[in-house]
């Protein structure tokens, strides 16, 4: 089972999750892929993820987290002992999102939502200072990320498997080049899908 956690202001309609969902469908494994709409509250988002994950053996679960979703994926992977792929993950989410308090809109729907000041403390409560089993993690970090510092990602996940993309951007707009590698870490042979 692959559980994709989208980033701040993102949604299940993002390019990366849509591409992965299409690959899984083409492989006849669409029912093994899920990307829920995460609530704005970090606590509620993680509770939702843990509720979904409770139905799956952690040994058969891989989280894929993008940006803020990578921050959540790290917390949940540590809690459950499952694998996680981190795509330009937020490492210091409370610091990075402190300036985002207020009413925002989702990128794909323009639907408004409120990111409350209390959510910063919720983010702090989810911080993982050091991962315990680096072999369960795969970091994909783009040096051209315009929102988050890839050097912080590389340092935080120093002992994990890493693929550093020279250039690209925060959304990894060239993600189609790397989808097979991500799915392979999840235990899915995507060789038949191009």
Automatic annotation (TrEMBL):
Entry superkingdom:
Bacteria
**Record keywords: Hydrolase included?**
yes
UniProt-recorded Gene Ontology molecular function terms: hydrolase activity
Q: Which UniProt keywords apply?
A: Hydrolase
Q: Which InterPro entries match?
A: AB_hydrolase_fold, UPF0227/Esterase_YqiA
Q: What name goes with this protein?
A: YqiA/YcfP family alpha/beta fold hydrolase
